[in-house]
Amino acid sequence: MSIPFNxxxxxxxxxxxxxxxxxxxACEDAGFDAFWIAEAYxxxxxxxxxxxxxxxxxxxxxxxxxxxxxxWGIISPYTRHPVQIAMEARVMQDLAGDRFLLGLGASKIFMxxxxxxxxxxxxxxxxMRESIEIIKGVLGGNAFEYQGKVFQASVPALKPDAHTPRxxxxxxxxxxxxxxxxxxxxxxxxxxxxxxTTPAFVRYSRKNMEDGARKAGKDPSELVLGxxxxxxxxxxxxxxxxxxxxxxxxxxxxxxQNIKGSADVLLECAGLTFDELQPVADxxxxxxxxxxxxxxxxxxxRKVCPIAGxxxxxxxxxxxxxxxxxxxxxxxxxxxxxxxxxxxxxxxVLPHFKN
Length: 355
Description:
Layout: E1 6-12, H1 17-30, E2 34-38, H2 54-64, E3 69-75, H3 82-96, E4 100-104, H4 108-114, H5 124-140, E5 144-147, E6 152-155, E7 171-174, H6 178-187, E8 190-193, H7 199-215, E9 224-233, H8 237-240, H9 242-258, H10 264-270, H11 274-295, H12 298-304, E10 307-309, H13 311-324, E11 328-333, H14 338-348, H15 350-354
Parallel strand pairs: 1-2, 1-11, 2-3, 3-4, 4-7, 7-8, 8-9, 9-10, 9-11
Antiparallel strand pairs: 5-6
Helix pairs in contact: 1-2, 1-14, 2-3, 3-5, 5-6, 6-7, 7-10, 7-13, 9-11
Protein backbone atom coordinates (compact mmCIF):
# COMPACT_ATOMS: atom_id res chain seq x y z
CA MET A 1 0.00 0.00 0.00
CA SER A 2 1.38 3.42 -0.94
CA ILE A 3 0.68 6.56 1.09
CA PRO A 4 -1.56 9.18 -0.59
CA PHE A 5 0.15 12.49 -1.31
CA ASN A 6 -0.98 15.02 1.28
CA UNK A 7 -0.60 18.83 1.19
CA UNK A 8 -1.13 20.57 4.51
CA UNK A 9 -0.20 23.71 6.41
CA UNK A 10 1.86 23.95 9.60
CA UNK A 11 1.73 26.88 11.99
CA UNK A 12 3.62 27.56 15.20
CA UNK A 13 1.54 28.00 18.37
CA UNK A 14 2.95 31.50 18.95
CA UNK A 15 0.09 33.69 17.75
CA UNK A 16 -3.30 34.59 19.27
CA UNK A 17 -5.59 31.56 19.33
CA UNK A 18 -8.44 33.22 17.42
CA UNK A 19 -6.06 34.10 14.57
CA UNK A 20 -4.77 30.53 14.44
CA UNK A 21 -8.31 29.12 14.42
CA UNK A 22 -9.23 31.49 11.58
CA UNK A 23 -6.21 30.29 9.60
CA UNK A 24 -7.14 26.64 10.16
CA UNK A 25 -10.67 27.29 8.93
CA ALA A 26 -9.31 29.13 5.89
CA CYS A 27 -7.08 26.14 5.12
CA GLU A 28 -10.04 23.77 5.42
CA ASP A 29 -12.12 25.97 3.11
CA ALA A 30 -9.22 26.13 0.63
CA GLY A 31 -9.04 22.33 0.38
CA PHE A 32 -5.78 21.61 2.22
CA ASP A 33 -5.54 18.05 3.54
CA ALA A 34 -4.14 18.86 6.99
CA PHE A 35 -3.43 21.60 9.50
CA TRP A 36 -0.53 20.98 11.88
CA ILE A 37 0.35 22.91 15.03
CA ALA A 38 4.01 23.04 16.02
CA GLU A 39 4.61 23.92 19.65
CA ALA A 40 6.37 27.25 19.97
CA TYR A 41 8.97 27.61 22.71
CA UNK A 42 9.93 30.61 24.87
CA UNK A 43 12.80 31.62 22.50
CA UNK A 44 10.16 33.28 20.30
CA UNK A 45 9.49 35.84 23.06
CA UNK A 46 12.69 37.55 21.98
CA UNK A 47 10.99 38.31 18.68
CA UNK A 48 7.57 39.59 19.77
CA UNK A 49 5.73 36.26 19.94
CA UNK A 50 4.37 34.18 22.83
CA UNK A 51 4.61 30.41 23.31
CA UNK A 52 1.23 28.69 23.63
CA UNK A 53 0.22 25.07 24.22
CA UNK A 54 -0.23 23.38 20.87
CA UNK A 55 -2.42 20.64 22.35
CA UNK A 56 -4.88 23.19 23.75
CA UNK A 57 -4.91 25.22 20.52
CA UNK A 58 -5.52 22.16 18.35
CA UNK A 59 -8.44 21.07 20.53
CA UNK A 60 -10.07 24.45 19.92
CA UNK A 61 -9.46 24.06 16.19
CA UNK A 62 -10.93 20.55 16.23
CA UNK A 63 -14.17 21.87 17.67
CA UNK A 64 -14.45 24.41 14.85
CA UNK A 65 -13.56 22.25 11.82
CA UNK A 66 -15.15 19.20 10.20
CA UNK A 67 -13.02 17.75 7.39
CA UNK A 68 -9.37 18.75 7.61
CA UNK A 69 -6.85 16.47 9.33
CA UNK A 70 -5.33 17.98 12.47
CA UNK A 71 -1.82 17.22 13.71
CA TRP A 72 0.54 17.87 16.56
CA GLY A 73 3.66 18.70 14.66
CA ILE A 74 5.32 18.24 17.19
CA ILE A 75 5.04 17.91 20.97
CA SER A 76 7.83 16.64 23.19
CA PRO A 77 7.88 13.91 25.87
CA TYR A 78 10.57 15.96 27.58
CA THR A 79 7.84 18.45 28.53
CA ARG A 80 4.91 16.03 28.96
CA HIS A 81 4.97 12.52 30.42
CA PRO A 82 3.77 9.96 27.83
CA VAL A 83 0.75 9.12 30.01
CA GLN A 84 -0.28 12.78 29.83
CA ILE A 85 0.33 12.76 26.06
CA ALA A 86 -2.05 9.79 25.81
CA MET A 87 -4.63 11.69 27.88
CA GLU A 88 -4.40 14.69 25.55
CA ALA A 89 -4.51 12.42 22.50
CA ARG A 90 -7.77 10.99 23.84
CA VAL A 91 -9.23 14.51 23.83
CA MET A 92 -8.29 14.85 20.17
CA GLN A 93 -9.78 11.43 19.41
CA ASP A 94 -13.01 12.57 21.04
CA LEU A 95 -13.08 15.79 19.03
CA ALA A 96 -11.50 14.84 15.70
CA GLY A 97 -11.59 11.04 15.50
CA ASP A 98 -9.56 9.70 12.59
CA ARG A 99 -8.66 13.23 11.53
CA PHE A 100 -6.07 13.43 14.32
CA LEU A 101 -2.33 13.03 13.56
CA LEU A 102 0.13 12.62 16.44
CA GLY A 103 3.66 13.94 15.94
CA LEU A 104 6.29 13.38 18.63
CA GLY A 105 9.82 14.75 18.84
CA ALA A 106 12.60 15.60 21.24
CA SER A 107 12.59 19.34 20.40
CA LYS A 108 16.23 20.12 21.12
CA ILE A 109 15.56 23.82 21.67
CA PHE A 110 12.87 23.15 24.25
CA MET A 111 15.17 20.65 25.97
CA UNK A 112 17.85 23.33 26.15
CA UNK A 113 15.48 25.95 27.54
CA UNK A 114 14.05 23.82 30.34
CA UNK A 115 17.28 21.98 31.17
CA UNK A 116 15.98 18.53 30.25
CA UNK A 117 18.19 15.89 28.68
CA UNK A 118 21.43 17.62 29.61
CA UNK A 119 24.08 15.25 30.87
CA UNK A 120 21.72 12.27 30.74
CA UNK A 121 23.06 8.89 29.65
CA UNK A 122 19.81 7.92 27.93
CA UNK A 123 19.41 9.58 24.53
CA UNK A 124 16.38 10.82 22.61
CA UNK A 125 16.04 7.53 20.69
CA UNK A 126 15.24 5.66 23.92
CA UNK A 127 12.92 8.45 25.03
CA MET A 128 11.02 8.16 21.73
CA ARG A 129 10.77 4.37 21.89
CA GLU A 130 9.51 4.32 25.46
CA SER A 131 7.10 7.19 24.84
CA ILE A 132 5.47 5.41 21.91
CA GLU A 133 5.17 2.16 23.85
CA ILE A 134 3.47 3.95 26.75
CA ILE A 135 1.14 6.06 24.58
CA LYS A 136 -0.03 3.02 22.63
CA GLY A 137 -0.31 0.98 25.82
CA VAL A 138 -2.54 3.57 27.48
CA LEU A 139 -4.70 4.20 24.40
CA GLY A 140 -5.21 0.47 23.91
CA GLY A 141 -7.36 0.34 27.04
CA ASN A 142 -5.92 -2.76 28.72
CA ALA A 143 -4.19 -2.76 32.10
CA PHE A 144 -0.71 -1.37 31.50
CA GLU A 145 2.45 -1.58 33.57
CA TYR A 146 5.72 -0.17 32.29
CA GLN A 147 9.22 0.16 33.69
CA GLY A 148 11.67 1.68 31.24
CA LYS A 149 15.04 3.39 31.43
CA VAL A 150 13.38 6.82 31.34
CA PHE A 151 9.66 6.44 32.06
CA GLN A 152 7.41 4.40 34.30
CA ALA A 153 3.66 3.94 34.02
CA SER A 154 0.95 2.08 35.89
CA VAL A 155 -2.51 2.41 34.36
CA PRO A 156 -5.55 0.23 35.17
CA ALA A 157 -7.72 -1.25 32.45
CA LEU A 158 -10.69 0.60 31.02
CA LYS A 159 -14.03 -0.78 32.19
CA PRO A 160 -16.24 -2.12 29.37
CA ASP A 161 -18.82 0.61 29.99
CA ALA A 162 -16.28 3.47 29.84
CA HIS A 163 -17.47 6.02 27.30
CA THR A 164 -14.25 6.57 25.31
CA PRO A 165 -12.49 5.50 22.10
CA ARG A 166 -10.08 2.58 22.34
CA UNK A 167 -8.21 2.97 19.08
CA UNK A 168 -4.43 3.23 18.79
CA UNK A 169 -3.60 5.97 16.32
CA UNK A 170 -0.49 6.32 14.10
CA UNK A 171 2.44 8.14 15.70
CA UNK A 172 5.00 10.06 13.65
CA UNK A 173 8.51 10.77 14.94
CA UNK A 174 10.29 14.03 14.19
CA UNK A 175 13.98 13.62 13.49
CA UNK A 176 16.83 15.56 11.91
CA UNK A 177 19.73 13.23 12.70
CA UNK A 178 20.14 9.69 11.33
CA UNK A 179 19.47 7.86 14.61
CA UNK A 180 16.00 9.29 15.20
CA UNK A 181 15.22 9.06 11.51
CA UNK A 182 15.95 5.33 11.56
CA UNK A 183 13.93 4.97 14.79
CA UNK A 184 10.96 6.53 12.97
CA UNK A 185 11.02 3.55 10.63
CA UNK A 186 11.43 1.05 13.46
CA UNK A 187 9.04 2.34 16.14
CA UNK A 188 6.87 4.92 14.39
CA UNK A 189 4.44 5.18 11.50
CA UNK A 190 6.51 7.75 9.71
CA UNK A 191 9.00 10.61 9.92
CA UNK A 192 8.56 14.38 10.17
CA UNK A 193 11.50 16.58 9.13
CA UNK A 194 12.28 20.07 10.34
CA UNK A 195 11.97 23.48 8.77
CA UNK A 196 14.48 24.28 6.01
CA THR A 197 13.98 20.77 4.64
CA THR A 198 15.09 20.65 1.00
CA PRO A 199 14.48 17.93 -1.63
CA ALA A 200 18.04 16.70 -1.01
CA PHE A 201 17.30 16.38 2.71
CA VAL A 202 14.07 14.52 1.90
CA ARG A 203 16.09 11.91 -0.02
CA TYR A 204 18.61 11.63 2.83
CA SER A 205 15.82 11.28 5.40
CA ARG A 206 13.81 8.74 3.41
CA LYS A 207 16.84 6.47 3.13
CA ASN A 208 17.36 6.54 6.90
CA MET A 209 13.67 5.91 7.61
CA GLU A 210 13.52 3.05 5.13
CA ASP A 211 16.69 1.49 6.55
CA GLY A 212 15.03 1.44 9.97
CA ALA A 213 11.79 0.03 8.59
CA ARG A 214 13.52 -2.83 6.77
CA LYS A 215 15.52 -3.65 9.88
CA ALA A 216 12.20 -3.98 11.75
CA GLY A 217 10.63 -6.06 8.98
CA LYS A 218 8.20 -3.28 7.98
CA ASP A 219 7.15 -2.15 4.52
CA PRO A 220 8.66 1.34 3.92
CA SER A 221 5.93 2.18 1.40
CA GLU A 222 3.42 2.27 4.26
CA LEU A 223 5.30 5.01 6.14
CA VAL A 224 4.65 8.76 5.98
CA LEU A 225 7.44 11.24 5.32
CA GLY A 226 6.25 14.74 6.20
CA UNK A 227 8.41 17.82 5.68
CA UNK A 228 8.09 21.35 7.02
CA UNK A 229 8.74 23.78 4.16
CA UNK A 230 8.55 27.57 4.29
CA UNK A 231 6.40 29.26 1.70
CA UNK A 232 4.24 32.07 0.41
CA UNK A 233 2.34 32.81 -2.77
CA UNK A 234 1.18 35.67 -4.98
CA UNK A 235 0.37 36.40 -8.59
CA UNK A 236 3.70 38.27 -8.65
CA UNK A 237 6.83 36.14 -8.25
CA UNK A 238 8.89 38.58 -6.15
CA UNK A 239 5.97 39.42 -3.86
CA UNK A 240 5.19 35.74 -3.54
CA UNK A 241 8.64 35.09 -2.10
CA UNK A 242 8.57 37.85 0.53
CA UNK A 243 6.89 35.80 3.25
CA UNK A 244 9.13 32.80 2.62
CA UNK A 245 12.20 35.04 2.90
CA UNK A 246 11.10 36.33 6.31
CA UNK A 247 10.18 32.90 7.63
CA UNK A 248 13.42 31.40 6.36
CA UNK A 249 15.32 34.19 8.12
CA UNK A 250 13.71 33.32 11.47
CA UNK A 251 14.48 29.63 11.12
CA UNK A 252 18.02 30.10 9.85
CA UNK A 253 18.80 32.43 12.74
CA UNK A 254 17.28 29.84 15.07
CA UNK A 255 19.52 27.09 13.68
CA UNK A 256 22.64 29.22 14.16
CA GLN A 257 21.76 30.26 17.71
CA ASN A 258 20.19 27.16 19.18
CA ILE A 259 20.79 23.80 17.51
CA LYS A 260 24.05 24.01 15.58
CA GLY A 261 25.11 20.37 15.78
CA SER A 262 21.66 18.99 15.05
CA ALA A 263 21.30 21.10 11.92
CA ASP A 264 24.57 20.18 10.23
CA VAL A 265 23.21 17.74 7.63
CA LEU A 266 20.05 19.79 7.17
CA LEU A 267 22.16 22.78 6.14
CA GLU A 268 24.68 20.70 4.20
CA CYS A 269 21.86 19.35 2.02
CA ALA A 270 20.88 22.95 1.31
CA GLY A 271 24.47 23.91 0.52
CA LEU A 272 24.47 26.40 3.39
CA THR A 273 27.21 27.07 5.97
CA PHE A 274 26.96 28.57 9.45
CA ASP A 275 29.37 31.32 8.38
CA GLU A 276 27.02 32.18 5.51
CA LEU A 277 24.09 32.37 7.91
CA GLN A 278 25.77 34.30 10.72
CA PRO A 279 24.78 37.71 9.24
CA VAL A 280 21.15 36.55 9.24
CA ALA A 281 21.37 35.56 12.93
CA ASP A 282 23.11 38.84 13.80
CA UNK A 283 20.44 40.85 12.01
CA UNK A 284 17.73 38.90 13.85
CA UNK A 285 19.27 39.78 17.20
CA UNK A 286 19.78 43.44 16.39
CA UNK A 287 16.73 44.31 14.33
CA UNK A 288 14.22 41.46 14.50
CA UNK A 289 12.71 39.34 11.76
CA UNK A 290 12.28 42.15 9.21
CA UNK A 291 15.98 43.01 9.42
CA UNK A 292 16.87 39.31 9.22
CA UNK A 293 14.75 38.92 6.09
CA UNK A 294 16.81 41.65 4.39
CA UNK A 295 19.95 39.64 5.22
CA UNK A 296 18.60 36.59 3.38
CA UNK A 297 20.12 36.97 -0.06
CA UNK A 298 18.49 35.63 -3.20
CA UNK A 299 21.15 32.90 -3.22
CA UNK A 300 20.35 31.82 0.34
CA UNK A 301 16.62 31.79 -0.42
CA ARG A 302 17.22 29.70 -3.53
CA LYS A 303 19.16 27.16 -1.47
CA VAL A 304 16.33 26.91 1.09
CA CYS A 305 14.01 25.66 -1.70
CA PRO A 306 10.80 27.30 -0.45
CA ILE A 307 7.39 26.60 -1.94
CA ALA A 308 7.04 30.23 -2.93
CA GLY A 309 6.36 32.65 -5.76
CA UNK A 310 3.61 32.36 -8.34
CA UNK A 311 1.17 29.43 -8.38
CA UNK A 312 3.16 27.89 -11.25
CA UNK A 313 6.40 28.15 -9.25
CA UNK A 314 4.73 26.60 -6.20
CA UNK A 315 3.38 23.69 -8.27
CA UNK A 316 6.82 22.99 -9.71
CA UNK A 317 8.42 23.04 -6.26
CA UNK A 318 5.79 20.75 -4.72
CA UNK A 319 6.36 18.29 -7.56
CA UNK A 320 10.09 18.40 -6.78
CA UNK A 321 9.43 17.50 -3.14
CA UNK A 322 7.01 14.74 -4.12
CA UNK A 323 9.53 13.27 -6.55
CA UNK A 324 12.18 13.29 -3.79
CA UNK A 325 9.98 11.06 -1.61
CA UNK A 326 7.97 13.47 0.55
CA UNK A 327 4.41 12.19 1.11
CA UNK A 328 3.11 14.99 3.37
CA UNK A 329 3.88 18.62 2.58
CA UNK A 330 3.73 20.70 5.81
CA UNK A 331 3.72 24.18 4.32
CA UNK A 332 4.50 27.06 6.65
CA UNK A 333 2.76 30.02 5.04
CA UNK A 334 4.11 33.40 6.08
CA UNK A 335 3.82 37.02 4.96
CA UNK A 336 0.91 39.37 4.41
CA UNK A 337 -2.70 38.13 4.23
CA UNK A 338 -2.05 34.48 5.04
CA UNK A 339 -5.72 33.53 4.83
CA UNK A 340 -5.75 35.08 1.38
CA UNK A 341 -2.64 33.11 0.48
CA UNK A 342 -4.36 29.91 1.64
CA UNK A 343 -7.29 30.77 -0.64
CA UNK A 344 -4.96 31.30 -3.61
CA UNK A 345 -3.22 27.98 -2.95
CA UNK A 346 -6.66 26.36 -2.91
CA UNK A 347 -7.71 27.97 -6.17
CA UNK A 348 -4.53 27.74 -8.22
CA VAL A 349 -2.24 25.04 -6.75
CA LEU A 350 -4.12 22.29 -4.92
CA PRO A 351 -6.37 21.28 -7.86
CA HIS A 352 -3.24 20.33 -9.82
CA PHE A 353 -2.50 17.60 -7.26
CA LYS A 354 -6.06 16.41 -6.72
CA ASN A 355 -6.72 15.62 -10.38
